[in-house]
Design brief:
This protein is an all-alpha fold. About 95% of the residues lie in helices and about 0% in strands. It has 2 helices and no strands.
Length: about 180
């Protein structure tokens, strides 16, 4: 034994090392590996769950946006329908008001025409009555000469009244002239 190597010791150490390695393998490596595998699976499951929830959230968001767009479109459609309905109602009311105004104007024209015709008839009646009354008065007078005499008498009376006033005015005029000289 030149190097002082004992093969038995080496083999014994080797056997101890193998036993130690097998014991550590069984006691530490397998449980740690099992724990690490569980942990990896747990994280993978959490990642998968997170991805699933994320995709569900994106789907819900897309559905929400679609519903929102549909609601906006429906609101716009209802607003347009309401506007059309209001415009139609306003046009209907305007037409009804125009028809009513036309009827009122037509009735007013008819009433005015009736009133005018009535006024013309009444005026004609009055003229006819006055003409017949004047004719009666003339016819009742016995003769034309009497009427002429009455006319002349009335004219003389009028002339006397005017003449008296003229005479008074003439008398006053010379006095004014005499007093001034």
């Amino acid at each position: 034994m030149p190097l002082n190597i004992d093969w038995q010791q080496i083999l014994l150490h080797l056997l101890n090392f193998v036993i130690l390695f097998a014991g550590l393998w069984l006691l530490l490596y397998k449980p740690v590996r099992k724990f690490m595998q569980k942990r990896r699976e747990e994280y993978e499951n959490k990642d998968a769950e997170t991805e699933r929830k994320k995709s569900e959230a994106e789907q819900l968001r897309a559905q929400y946006e679609q519903k929102l767009a549909d609601a906006d479109a429906e609101i716009e459609a209802k607003r347009l329908d309401a506007k059309k309905e209001m415009d139609a109602y306003a046009a209907l009311r305007k037409n009804a008001a125009q028809e009513e105004a036309d009827a009122i104007v037509k009735k007013a024209h008819e009433n005015a025409a009736r009133e005018r015709e009535k006024s013309v008839r009444d005026a004609r009646r009055e003229i006819a009555a006055l003409a017949s009354e004047a004719t009666e008065k003339l016819a009742l007078r016995e003769t034309a000469s009497e009427a002429f005499d009455q006319f002349l008498d009335a004219a003389d009376a009028q002339a006397k009244e005017d003449g008296g006033k003229r005479a008074d005015a003439a008398e006053k005029a010379p006095e004014d002239k005499g007093g001034n000289e």
